[in-house]
Design goal:
heterodimer, A: 305 residues, MetI-like fold, two-stranded antiparallel ribbon, 2 strands, B: 327 residues, five-stranded antiparallel beta sheet, 31% helix
Chain lengths: 305, 327
């Protein structure tokens, strides 16, 4: 088990290194930052001074090295557009994104796991058909549309929830539901399929042949195995939410990482974009690592592989 | 028949597969007495496993229709039982050993857990008591180092050991009837013999009734008291083992025997039965074996022969049997 996880950990570090290199290179391919920053009447000498000041005159590998060293220390650079440290900008926005991600994710799990199991057990019935169709529609419907429809219904017509913004608990409901609906559409179908596959396994018949109670067969023998693919998928969903639900955050004016990134892109604020990408990648890698840990807990066979 | 542990009358099982209906088992009647070992023989798709799985309704109820004039196990009328009552019969009354122990054991649960859970459910044993008995059972079925094995997962065991675990699991609740559904098919030949011997010794010791489902007639020779031969969902012959091996009455049984190597005549030629088993979706108006039968006459094509009891107690479904012919 230890060797499996330490191997995965090393792999995760390598991935992060790769991502950092890619973002660093892209940052340098998109033009000379000095041209962007310097005043319009700046002389060639001024620009050269600025370049030296920023360390942009040094060889690329040295720049990359210091970028890594600083990034590890939590220094992701300086946004000249917003006149603030990137790390500080991200730190300000992260709590909102994490709140929304947690709310959306937990809601998605609370919807999809019971629902997926129930329709798997009632496969072929009208309920199965309805839920599967609805989930398919949910998967096909764009997130912004779902968000806007929710706003129209709950904020405009029923007037029970705020349209957008950040503040009390009421503000998180609609964006969280928007995210959860999309996530649970995907997860419900997976839970159903995975549950059906496990339920048709020989060992489920064995469990029945032993006269175990139906709920024991379901939750002790079937559920655990069925969760293996679901954990992978749920991990990806969570990673996506944590790295910023760009569209949903924009619709609901949610002050999270997603909106920070959208604004940064429109302002060509490269240090911020770089920082967000690097942070998202770090979350992806971290969550994937946690998924691997969960694998070992769920499926003891993994230890030996 | 009152001392029968298992008694089945007129059992039919239909599957719905992709729009068409397969008559997997048609009008099967059989019984197993206390302490008796019944061998149930047939080729793949003959309905032998389906017959035995329907004994405690282990088939997917959504896709199968089980009908029978009467079917009872140890006095429980199986088709009338509610799901909860059925759960009480599965295990202490009827236990199963399945064909492939790798897929039949839960890959995520330890061997000990899987042996214990039946005892905890049906005998109300505590966790520690069940574990202690599981250890005894593992020892009993000949697993070395049971203290180590009890905490292992199925994939950490060899095929033979896995099947021993299955056997321990089935025996844990001391069933009245043990159904072994091709328990040696997935194993190496050398291991097969050990497993057969093990199950046989346990069956004799406990005096429980047993049904051994197999396609291997030779294997049953030293195991079964009585042999029931199935073909295309029907019983074609039912006779005491000795009588059946000495003088098969149904041409299909004779064909099976001729295609089997014999220990007492190792150099005899093995003859395959010509043709292939019938498509189960097609309902044949006559005897299903007729197209492959050398003794078939016009009557066999248009009329299904009934399973008739002969003078020696043997049951045969053939118009022109090889022995005890009366027609």
């Amino acid at each position: 088990m230890f060797s499996f996880l330490s191997k995965r950990f090393l792999q995760a570090l390598l991935v992060l290194l790769g991502v950092s290199f890619a973002t660093f290179i892209v940052g340098h391919l998109t033009g000379d930052p000095v041209e962007l920053m310097a005043r319009e009447n700046a002389t060639e000498q001024d620009k050269q001074d600025l370049r030296v000041y920023l360390g942009l005159d040094r060889p690329l590998e040295q720049q990359y090295f210091s970028f890594i060293v600083k990034a590890v220390q939590g220094d992701l650079g300086f946004s000249f557009v917003q006149q603030a440290k990137v790390s500080q900008l991200i730190a300000e926005r992260l709590p909102a994104t994490l709140q929304l991600a947690a709310a959306g994710f937990l809601l998605a799990l609370a919807i999809s796991i019971p629902l997926g199991i129930i329709i798997a057990l009632n496969r072929g019935t009208i309920w199965d058909f309805l839920v599967t169709t609805l989930a398919m529609a949910g998967q096909a419907a764009p997130g912004f549309w779902i968000g806007l429809m929710l706003v129209v219904l709950f904020a405009v017509h029923l007037k029970v929830l705020p349209v957008s913004g950040y503040g009390g608990a009421a503000y998180i409901v609609l964006p969280a539901i928007t995210l959860a609906l999309q996530s649970s559409a995907r997860l419900t179908r997976l839970v159903r399929a995975s549950m059906l596959e496990v339920l048709s396994a020989d060992y489920i018949r064995t469990a029945h042949s032993k006269g175990l109670r139906e709920r024991v067969v379901l939750f002790v023998h079937a559920f655990r195995g069925a969760m293996i693919p679901v954990v992978t998928m749920a991990g990806l969903e969570l990673a996506e939410l944590v790295s910023g639900a760009f569209i949903t955050e924009t619709i609901f004016a949610w002050p999270g990482i997603g909106r920070l990134a959208v604004t940064a892109v429109s302002q060509r604020d490269f240090p911020v974009i770089q920082g967000v990408v690097l942070m998202s990648a770090a979350f992806f890698v971290l969550i994937n690592f946690l998924v691997d840990v969960l694998y070992v807990v769920i499926d003891p066979r993994v230890k030996l592989k | 028949m009152s001392d029968a542990v298992l008694s089945v009358e007129g059992l039919s099982v239909d599957f719905a597969v992709g729009g068409s209906i397969i008559h997997a088992v048609r009008d099967v009647s059989l019984s197993v007495a206390q302490g008796e070992v019944l061998g149930l023989v047939g080729e793949s798709g003959s309905g032998k496993s389906v017959t035995m799985l329907s004994v405690v309704r282990l088939l997917d109820a959504r896709r199968t229709a089980i009908t029978a004039r009467a079917m009872s196990v140890d006095g429980h009328s199986i088709l009338d039982l509610r799901p909860r009552a059925l759960e009480d019969v599965r295990g202490p009354v009827v236990s199963y050993i399945f064909q492939d122990p790798l897929t039949a054991l839960n890959p995520l649960l330890t061997v000990g857990r899987q042996i214990s859970e039946g005892m905890r459910r049906h005998k109300g044993l505590s966790r520690t008591a069940a574990r202690a008995r599981a250890l005894d059972l593992l020892r009993r079925v000949g697993i070395p180092a049971p203290e180590l094995r009890i905490n292992q997962l199925p994939h950490q065991l060899s095929g033979g050991m896995r099947q021993r675990v299955m056997i321990a699991m089935a025996l844990a609740v001391e069933p009245k009837l043990l159904i072994a559904d091709e328990p040696t098919t997935a194993l190496d030949v050398t291991v097969q013999a050990e497993i057969v011997r093990l199950v046989q010794s346990i069956q004799r010791e406990q005096g429980m009734a047993m049904v051994w489902v197999t396609h291997d007639l030779a294997l049953l020779a030293r195991l079964a008291d009585r042999v029931v031969v199935m073909y295309a969902g029907r019983i074609v012959e039912d006779a005491l083992a000795e009588a059946l091996y000495d003088a098969p009455a149904h041409p299909y049984t004779a064909g099976l025997l001729a295609s089997t190597s014999r220990i007492d005549d190792p150099f005899s030629e093995q003859e395959p039965i010509p043709g292939a088993p019938p498509d189960p979706r097609v309902v044949h108006p006559g005897c299903s074996f007729a197209p492959r039968c050398s003794r078939a006459q016009a009557r066999c094509q248009g009329e299904v022969p009934a399973l008739e009891i002969k003078a020696d107690g043997r049951r045969v479904a053939c118009f022109y049997p090889l022995t005890g012919s009366q027609t």
